[in-house]
Amino acid sequence: MKLVDVVTVYVTLQRSLGLHFKAADRLLRQFAHAMGDVDMAEVQPESVVLFLQGSGALSATWKLKYSVLSGFYRFAISRRHAAVSPLPTSVPKLPAPQTPYVYSTDELCRLLDATPALHVAHSRQQASMYRTLILLLYGSGMRIGEALRLTIIDVDLLERVIKVRDTKFFKTRLVPIGPRLALDLAAYIERRRNLPMPEGENSHLFTTRTGRGWPYSHVITLFQHLRRAAHIDCPEGELRPPRLHDLRHTAAVHRVIAWYRDGKDVQRLLPQLATYLGHIDIKSTQRYLQMTPELLDQASQRFAQYAHCGDDHE
What we know:
This protein is mostly helical. Helix content is 54%, strand content 3%. A hairpin with a 4-residue loop joins β1 (155-156) and β2. α6 (126-140) packs across α10, α10 runs parallel beside α13 and α11 (266-277) crosses α12 (282-288).
């Protein structure tokens, strides 16, 4: 049986189980294309190694590819489409995952101030649209993909709530937003209505000039230009510069810092933050909150206050 046909059967099965399987589908199609028009038995281990390696330096993408292909070959072998797996039996030493970055308030302002650098004549709303995207990601803590899937009808400006559908864990959640972000979104949506609305109020919130949803890869490429224009460089000791995704991490850390400053019970509020971020449990949120110097300082001040109160009662 042809490799591409087995991929189709496998993807169809996963989707019948309720999985979206979009990213894995794209990766498996890339794999089939890279292997060529071959039967399952003709896939060579050497070719698989080259696909896993890719064209650049070894990265965490290797592990992602390996995980998807492992599931595919377990299925293929169980259905007797393949006798053995051509995947390598040993995993190479991969670089350490990138340390999440917390943008300072000054850096956030510089990113926003630099958005005019993204202006292009053939897409006049691109710069202001990207500014709105940054405000939304930081103000809501959404994942990038969640923001890009939003439609106009998902934004309730009266109630100041955004409905996030099709999340990482296949759930829908409501994300409250502040009054300033609501005003920015209201002004943006008015401008957005000047672009094509192919599906009416169900059209994408962030879109190309033709009304199509903004492609994820294009958004990431634009951020690389924006980061350079804002003069935000690679942190000392890191191999890669800060990412757009780090706005989500920044939003979470800044929220906890604000709670500490306001004297709130942070441990009691963490489950609320987990729900807000769309985490499946509190452990995910706790891992997400890397101890930054500012967060450590606030925690230390809180401990000092408790210690001082204890001394007063002795």
